[in-house]
Amino acid sequence: MGLKEVKLPDIGEGVTEGEMIKWLVKEGDVVEEDQPIAEVMTDKATVEVPTPFSGVVKELKVKEGDIVPIETTLLVLEESEGKKASGETKEKEAAPSQPEAKPEKREPIPTQIVSDDYYPPVANVLATPSTRRLARELHVDINKIEGTGLAGRVTREDVLKVASTSAPQQQGGMEVVPSAAKELWTPSYGQGVTEQEERVPLRGIRRKIAEQMQKTKHIVPHFTIMDEANVTELVKVRQQAKALGEQYGVKITYLPFVMKALIATLREFPMFNASIDDEAGEIVYKKYFHIGFAADTPNGLLVPVVKNADQKTLLQVSKEINELANKARLGKLSLEEMKGATISITNIGSVGGTYATPIINHPEVAIIGMYKIVDKPVMINGKFRAAKVMNFTATCDHRLIDGAVAANFLKAFIQRIEQPSQLMLDMI
Amino acid sequence: MKQYDVCVIGAGPGGYVAAIRCAQLGLKTAIVEREFLGGVCLNVGCIPSKAMITAAHFFHRAHHQAHEMGFEISDIKLNMKKLWEWKNSVCQRMRGGVEQLLKGNGIDIFKGEAQFLSDKEVIISSKEGSQKVGASYYIVATGSKPMEIPGFSIDEKHVLSSTGALDLQQLPKKIVIIGGGYIGLEMGTYLNQLGTKVEILEANDSLLKGVVEKEVVQIIERKLKKSGVQIHYNVRAQSYEKKGKHLKVKAIKGSEEVTFDADKILLMVGRQPLSDQVGLNKVGVRVNDKGFIEVNAQRRTSVPHIFAIGDVAGQPLLAHKASFEGVMVAEVIAGQNRVYDVKTVPAVIFTDPEIASVGWSEEECRKNGYAELKIGKFPFGANGRAVSLMQTEGFVKIIADAKTHVVLGVHMVGPEVSQLISEAALAIEMGARLEDIALTIHPHPTLGEVMMESAEAALGHAIHIIQKPLGKGNGAQKRPSL
Asked: What is the pLDDT of residues A168-181, one digit of tens each?
């Protein structure tokens, strides 16, 4: 009998920590080998962590909500007497006087399973084999070093120099983060005010939103262009479509129309359906149309994605939007359903506000905002007419998209919105 | 169930080397082998073939060259049985060495066929019974086997693979070799030198197609023909039939049907990976359409704690590549930061004369963006040691980037070039320039001087061949500077 610690294993994909969402066992529970003991959320997904041993839970070492680095002890088990791996039993029986005897004095084996898409970069610069190995061991990407040796070779000294000037490395990571950059990220707060403040840990979806938004704002120079559209026609068309949709049991909103108008416009302006590959320094034009749409949920903002929206009918798109929005509210969206958007739409219109300047969902390069439809007098051919008016914004990544281009894009888009018959012409 | 840190499946030059390095790094290691320790390499491949080739070469020289040196040898006879026994003793000795090394490193050896039961345990079955073994990591090193073609299945009696061709206790009078690749040529050379009449049927229009440079092939082809080996190009073998003790091979050349008589047929059309033997599909290890296990640059498979090395993990199918991967994977498992990033894998072929190459061919250099090259070629005929060995065929050709003089490829054909190529491999791994080789004193009189002279030749001033003068004046070369 002995106490065993169950640690948070490396969950893969270069993840270094996870958030303890929920304990699935409590102290005193009897657990079997491979039984899930906790739900842990990482950057990528929520996973169930199994215990590698059987036994009785003696102590839970972390609380729900804690951020837990990998290899942290999650709980302590008292090994159950009856069933044990036979190999281990023998070892222990053979040496009863040393119940805590460690298996021979071997180097610890990393239980860590490195994700299979990560490994140190293969050197493709001129450098001797020993220098290449040195770079890997110092977690320096040799391909990024400018060699000072003959014919541009990276010397041992070059590697040592880069290694000594870069910040302490994260385990396993190869990225060289200059130390100054780190300081920028550390805000300081006044200490001591306790009673008039409530401190709540930044957790779960909120934390992910915070990180994503901060990252995007850090990378992408945003600008927003705004305009209004006379949607009188669209309102009529949508009314008819809504009635038709009901026959199929599908609720048809304005969003699918906006999506279709957007896709048609994207075909004219491919740079809006693109990304910048920051590492490669290349623009990636995408030939597929995965449209993200912002969904407000009790837990925070989620952006489900309608994949290949260009290949689906308005009815299909409507149905999919409803299903995804529903799942989002219930917290049942899979990771897959939130990945891979090429551009996003945010619909704040249902709540209010005339205009907003939303944040792009990086690495996308634009986000379209749609707002509330209002009745407004509009001047047409010298006469005031009552019209339905809807505001639109296009928020763009100025690295790729210039103001004039954005203005033309929004104009072309609004033309389609104002004349829904145009949508018929665009139809594939 | 016995539990290990690492279980290696296959004890060839990849597997046993991996196991030893694992043990050296303190990992509790098991190795499973179904046939012989040392694998194909040590038992039916590299080592026995080199034994036979050495013997054949010796016999051949005694016959054809000794008299020129003044030896009057009247009656040399081949006792094939005796040669066979000596070859076996060589393998036996090497096999024993591997076993000692494994045991000396505290590695548990399991004899039998391994099958994955799950990604955490294998069952090892043999005549004596079966047992389960568990491990945290697995290294799959199951190697490859000779390929067959329609009409010919290997029975090692009439149709031989390299295994059968190296295990002959009687010298066949006449053989037909299907396939003019490197194994076919090595077998053909040794049997021809022992006195067998050899015909080679090659489906392409040249030997060693795409493997070595054309000018290298020319030397080998000329020598083979001179020795009486008949080579038939663009011939596709279809089937064979037995006629009494003899075999008749039917083939197609163009649109004609042609036949060849033989005592034995050697089928040498290549090797294919053995990826379907241990139940990889059950545990989710992905295998590509050619049968190779898919691996990344750390030789990790689609199942992160299962690694694959050697022939089963992809080209080139060479023992030394497998061994290198074995060491690397062991270190990866032990938590060290390793990746397969060698610049090049040298290749050697034990024809007569030998072929060896490392790095890129001229064509590959150009494909990789090196438009301007400096190329030096130096013949063994101008080397004192080669002349005194009475082996003057061949040359060393060195290819470098014209701008930086960094060596990109070295191609050799000639005496003992299998020994010389390591210097060239080191040069490429170190990123050496032509000057680095030219300015290194090479001892005289050795075959190694040819490497130095070829670097000098690329720079325009090899001593022992006539090149255009350096210095001033019309037509003079400009001395390269850096």
From this structure: 444 443 433 333 33
Q: Judge if B299 and B237 occupy the same domain.
A: no
Average pLDDT over residues B246-262: 95
* Residues in B touching A122 (Cβ below 8 Å): 297, 339-341
Spell out which residues of chain B touch residue A126, defining contact as CB-CB under 8 Å: 406, 431
Q: Is B298 close to A151, i.e. CB distance below 8 A?
A: no
B273 residue type, one letter: P
The H or E element spanning position A23 is strand A17-23
AA identity, residue A427: M
**pLDDT value of residue A84:** 42
DSSP run (H or E) holding A423:
helix A420-426
> Cα Rg for chain B, rounded, in angstroms?
24
Using omega within 30 degrees of 0 as the cis cutoff, is the peptide bond preceding B13 cis?
no
Note if B444 is an active site residue: yes
> Any chain A CB within 8 A of the CB of B136?
yes
Q: Does A112 touch chain B (CB under 8 A)?
A: yes
pLDDT of A187 strictly over 50: no
Residues B389 and B417 in one domain: yes
Q: Where does a domain end: B246, B269, B292?
A: B269
Q: What is the mean pLDDT of residues B310-332?
A: 97
Residue in B with minimal Cα distance to A84: B1
Q: Give the pLDDT confidence of A44-74 residue by residue, as tens digits.
A: 566 778 888 888 888 888 888 788 888 888 8
- Determine the distance in angstroms separating the CA of B431 from the nearest CA of chain A, rounded to an integer: 6
Asked, for residue B481, whether it belongs to a domain, the answer is no
Name, in order, each residue with C-beta under 8 angstroms of B222's C-beta and a sequence gap of 6 or more: none
Locus of tokens 């494909």? B367
Interchain pair B339, A136: CB under 8 A: yes
**Alpha helix (H) ranges present in B199-312?**
214-226, 280-283
pLDDT at A11: 64
Helices and strands in chain A, H and E counts: 10, 18
Please give the residue range of the domain that contains residue B436: 347-459
Chains A and B: how many Cβ contacts under 8 Å? 80
Main-chain dihedrals φ then ψ at residue B105, nearest 5 degrees = -95, 10
Q: Give the separation between CA A255 and CA A260, rounded to whole angstroms.
A: 9
Task: Locate the chain A residue with the closest alpha carbon to B25.
Answer: A107
Instruction: Mark whether B178 and B127 lie in a shared domain.
Output: no
Domains of chain A: 3-94 (2.40.50.100), 129-180 (4.10.320), 207-426 (3.30.559.10)
Contacts of A109 in chain B (CB under 8 A): 5, 27, 136, 333-335
- pLDDT of res. B293: 96
pLDDT confidence of B39, banded at 50, 70, 90?
Answer: very high
Residue B154 falls inside a structural domain:
no
Q: Are residues B34 and B119 in the same domain?
A: yes
**Rounded to whole angstroms, how far apart are CA atoms A88 and A94?**
10
Is the minimum CB–CB distance between A123 and chain B shorter than 8 Å? yes
The lowest-confidence range among A28-32, A204-208, A413-417, B469-473 is B469-473
* Per-residue pLDDT at A129 exceeds 60: yes
B23: closest chain A residue by CA: A106
Report the number of distinct structural domains present in chain B: 3
Of A87, A123, A129, the CB nearest to B3: A87
Same domain, B46 and B187: no
CATH number, domain containing residue B322: 3.50.50.60
Within 8 A of B338 by CB-CB distance, chain A residues are 120, 133, 136
Q: Are residues B246 and B312 in the same domain?
A: no
Query: What pLDDT, on the 0 to 100 scale, is given for residue A351?
Result: 76
**Residue in chain A nearest B431 by alpha carbon:** A126
Contact criterion met (CB < 8 Å) for A116 and B300: yes
Residue A152 Ramachandran class (φ > 0 left, ψ -120 to 50 alpha, else beta): left
Q: Are residues B410 and B305 in the same domain?
A: no
Q: Give domain status of residue B132, yes or no.
A: yes
